[in-house]
Design a protein that fits this description.
Layout (H helix, E strand, L loop, with lengths): L6 H8 L2 H22 L13 H28 L4 H31 L8 H22 L3 H15 L2 H11 L19 H45 L1
Length: 240
Amino acid sequence: MFGLANPDRFLRFTRPLMPVVWGLSIVLLAVATWLAFTAPEDYQQGDTVRIMFVHVPAASLGLIAYGALGVSSFFALVFRHPLADAAARAAALPGAAFTALALITGSLWGKPMWGAWWAWGDARLMSVLVLFLFYVAYLALRASIEDETKAVRAAAVLGLVGLVNLPIVKFSVDWWNTLHQPASLIRADGPAMPAVFLAPLLTMMAAYGLLFLAVWLTAIRTEIVRRRVLSIRARRALEA
């Protein structure tokens, strides 16, 4: 990992991986979509169960992306890892998009199942909303500070603070009595769903994971190029 901290080495290492990761993510996404639409209706939820094939992977990736942002922020703040800030910044926008998708699809599922688009007293819903707000705050903070050094430090601190919310999101359904259903995938006694629903769900989660990896690596590579362009412009401005 530390060997890839060198931007040139990182670019060389990831260049051949990009078409592979993008290609696999697109293929898996197509397969997962086909499995989701060909799965049978649930005896209670009917066709509404198909929303879960989008909602659950999106919510999971929202957490994973913030975990990547938080860990990268730690290395940027403590160890001054050369690519850590770029990795944290690159994870923010796709992470926010996945979290927003989880909130939207959760509301679409909640209306027919709960009779309401939103439940303000539900711990899972509120903690995911807080997660989304951390993403928005991180992006806004980075955009509002012109000094790159100060922006890196302030954003890294905010990224680390937001890590506190991740276990709250994960265990909120266990710690409090909420409308949101408890975990049905990662359980001590195994997944609480039939294979006909488990297969498309796991395939979609794998597709989302590869899609995030592809977007993340592409964004990091773009950030490296952006910083090099800014450095060249600044050097030419000084020479002029």
